[in-house]
Design brief:
The radius of gyration is 16 Å and the shape is globular. Strands 1-2 form a two-stranded antiparallel sheet. It is mainly alpha-helical. The protein has one domain (12-109). The longest helix has 37 residues, at 97-133. 78% of the residues lie in helices and 4% in strands. This is Phage holin family protein. The chain crosses the membrane at residues 37-56, 68-91, 97-123. Keywords: Membrane, Transmembrane, Transmembrane helix.
Length: 134
Amino acid sequence: MIMFGLRALIFVLSAALGLIVADLVLGGFVIEWSNWWGFVLCVVIFAILQSVLAPWIARMAKRYAPALLGGIGIVSTLVALLIVVLLPIGSLRITDAIAWVLAPVIVWVVTALATLLLPMIFIKKQVRATGSQM
C-alpha cells in the first residue's frame, strides 16, 4: 500500500513538474498562479486523466491505427491537456497554436523524465534511512 501511495505521489509530482516547465518555456501556456488551489486541482485531474487515457488510447490505436502506437504518450497528454483546459477551473490556459503543438511534447518529456528520476531520489533516501537504522 505504501508503494502504491509513493507511485501515485511521484506521478502527481511529475505531472506538476511537466505543467510548470511548460508554463516557464511556452508563452501561450499560462498557469494562473493567483488561483493556486485551481492549479493543484488541474494537476490532480491531469494525472488521473493521463493514467486512464494512456491505456485506453493504446487499445484504440492498436485496434484502429497501429501506426500511432509509438506516440500514445504524447496523444494521451494532448487529450488530458485539452480536457483540463476546457474544465471551468480556470487555472490553466493554452492561448496559441504553437503552445498547443509544443505543450504536449514538453509535458510528456518532463513527465517521463520525472517518473524515471524521482523514484531514484526517493529510493536512495529510503535506502539511506534504512541503512542508518541498522
